[in-house]
Amino acid sequence: xxxxxxxxxxxxxxxxxxxxxxxxxxxxxxxxxxxxxxxxxxxxxxxxxxxxxxxxxxxxxxxxxxxxxxxxxxxxxxxxxxxxxxxxxxxxxxxxxxxxxxxxxxxxxxxxxxxxxxxxxxxxxxxxxxxxxxxxxxxxxxxxxxxxxxxxxxxxxxxxxxxxxxxxxxxxxxxxxxxxxxxxxxxxxxxxxxxxxxxxxxxxxxxxxxxxxxxxxxxxxxxxxxxxxxxxxxxxxxxxxxxxxxxxxxxxxxxxxxxx
Length: 260
Prior knowledge:
By secondary structure, the protein is α+β, with helices and mostly antiparallel strands. The protein has 7 helices and 12 strands. It has helices at 11-20, 31-45, 68-74, 77-87, 165-173, 183-187, 247-257; strands at residues 22-25, 59-62, 101-104, 133-134, 143-148, 160-162, 181-182, 199-201, 209-212, 218-219, 231-232, 235-236. The strands form 4 sheets. Strands 1, 5, 9, 11 and 12 form a 5-stranded antiparallel sheet that branches. The chain has a 3-stranded antiparallel sheet with strand order 8-6-10, with no helix packed on it. The longest helix has 15 residues, at 31-45. The chain is globular and about 55 Å long.
């Protein structure tokens, strides 16, 4: 059954988000926008899309982009409706740009950035990113959003996700209260507390978006396919904190009331 445009996520998908920490939304933005965005990003890489000999590095990172295709993708009505469902109407800040873009090329080289982590959300004025922080209230971040700007298959370096790992991180953050933990403190365990979780690859067609809980443990991986991978991974920022009755906050409360 097709979901209503104003409620793109079914009740079952919302409960799966609470349980697993992510949900995949197909056709979240039009494929032509992905194609237009890729053309802009290709130019910035300095690489030739028709000549793999120019693809000399495993990853090139590009920053925030506010060109029209990216603004239109970020402003997709389908996404806005999904944000309302997960975070609450009026409780999230509209995206005016997209980024960052870790563009991954087929390569035998180690990309050097494939470790498990979460995306921390405050204290980012400190130059040392290991001192950036997250707290149990998820200050500064309502969602991690993965925008697929290219088709991403299993061999095309899809982001690896540990389903349900947001629950493990919530239980680590809770004792630290408002001050939270730094990325260095969180990483001190190697994120072993989530190692038992089922691993999912964030694959899909261009235009797919993964809506991820801010505490979700995820990782990059080497690219062993043939097609260059383009994704954006911006945060969705909250307004006035998380609304307790909506799924992002409910997932945290559920984690703290359970043992698994």
